[in-house]
Amino acid sequence: MPTTPTPTRAKSAAPPSRSVLRDPAFLRLWAGTTASGLATWALPFVLGLAVLHRELGAAGLGLVLAARTAGFLAAVAVGGVLADQHSRRAVVFWSALAAAVAAPLLAAGLGRSLVLMTAAAALAGAGQGACRPAFQALTAETVDPGRRQQANAAMTIAVRSSTLTGPALTALLTAFLGVRTLLLGIGLLWLVAALVPARGTAPAEPAAGPAGSTARAGFRTEFLEGVREARRHPWFLAGLAALAAVIALGYSTTSVALPLISRDRYGTGWVLAAAMTAYTVGALLGAVVIARLRPRSQGWAAFAGLAAYGVAPLSLMLPVHPVVVVAAYAVAGIGIELFNVPWFTATQREVAPEKLARVSSLDFLVSYGLAPVGLALIAPAIGRFGVTPVLAVCTAACFLVPAASALVPTARHFSRTAPAARD
Fold this sequence. Notes:
75% of the residues lie in helices and 0% in strands. The protein is an all-alpha fold.
């Protein structure tokens, strides 16, 4: 049986002096990815404003957001397969266009039809899910290997900056435009994501069948090929395990515990707001740092950054000054991007190009799929055992699972071969 050839890798020298921000093709991709990220963030926030304005009930909000999550999870694996079968640019176009169509449907249903809003939210989530792995693969097609870490950091910086400034700006616009108009604005952002990116410069060739045919197998077979490709990279599986622990236990626990502790221990809501802002600022700083930083053992450095998220639940567990909690969230934000950017870059470098979107879809399934599961389980656990024991378990998991993952073979460099062997 033929084996998948290991993709050609560039030498691990310093990145080219010409900034990726001066590359028109990347700037178009960056604009599209940023628009999709901003639209993804804005939808739940705008719908939350609709609840404040009594245009949508709390139960309705939960149903609509659940439908969006379900649409995402249903489409992300399909999008990964389609992006490896067909043009990544075409998959981005059609998936973003689907999300754009959902926006006016949401506006039409607001205050009138919860059924229409639920269906539109599922369509928006499907568009979001299908385009995520396609964008990841399109980045590998558009940017040369030496500048991909800088490119991934630039995309993260844009999204984090939007998250930091977006709430105040959106709340201000609501006073003049209204929630329905903002929903239409989200549709325009998705149109930007659909229309602006350029076609990749090196599209993956379709894999030939046993007799040299280019006929494609079914979805299940195609997806399982992506799973087998992921299994060829022990560092990738280790990273998924570490992500699962930090997201399902650490992130979910702090999402539930932080509001409770801000209210009950400190008697104010500003700790909640300050901690979340500090997390975003820290993530922004982490992306700026990792755009230039090239650790010799990038995998170990990335796992250390991911483990740093453990300081967030640890700060909530201890009776510390609220400033310590805010600082801990800033550290967690820095660490998460010290992991994310090298993780995306290594996936784009190491995975066989014709299977990159399918492997990336596994990443997004874990990243987005486990958060609601964790949220559903953590709240009952806190009610049963108390907040401190749950925080203690989750803190230990955030520290220990990434540390154990770093011991997996190939994890040190996020590569099946050491840097010297790739030169």
